[in-house]
Design goal:
This protein is of the alpha+beta class and 172 residues long. It has a single domain, classed as 2-Layer Sandwich (Alpha-Beta Plaits). Helices cover 23% and strands 18% of the residues. It has 5 helices and 6 strands. Strands 2-3-1-5-4-6 form a 6-stranded mixed beta sheet. The radius of gyration is 19 Å and the shape is globular. The relative contact order is 0.17. GO terms for molecular function: nucleic acid binding; zinc ion binding. It comes from Peronospora effusa. Keywords: Metal-binding, Zinc, Zinc-finger.
Length: 172
Amino acid sequence: MHQPDKGSVRARQLGRDEARSATELEYEVLLHNVTRFTDIGRLSAYFQEHIAAENELEDMDTYTPDSRTSNVWKLTVRMARCPKFLREIVRIIWNGQTIILKHPDIGRRLQCWRCGNLGHTEAKCRYTEAQLHEPGSRVATEQEIAGLEDLAKPFTSFEEMKEVVAKRLLLQ
């Protein structure tokens, strides 16, 4: 799936005009089949735990911003190329649900939303449940998910929320 590195490290970091390109410093992967019941806070923590570089999840909802009902999310990693954790991975099994990763090199090619492979649609997919757990998959176990911090919670306690609200009211 990924091409081997070519040239020097310096040549890969700089453009033809010897300037560092901002787009080359971000690797974006689209996550498909993310239901509205997916714990986005823990999914974000999962990526932060396994990817050393700074990364963020952004919903690709076209209806209203931040409605959190999008089934397509964009994972942006502050790296010039795919992180090791995501290399050769086309799906993540999250609480029994298959999240499909669409890497940039796939482009506009047909990708199955069930198995993540190229060349057929979900309706024609012949992958069994056992095959979904074979190479090309990364399985997040229930114990691993339960141990992750929920990054979607803005406050750790109700008292902390009251303090923040009181401070904001004083500023007005």
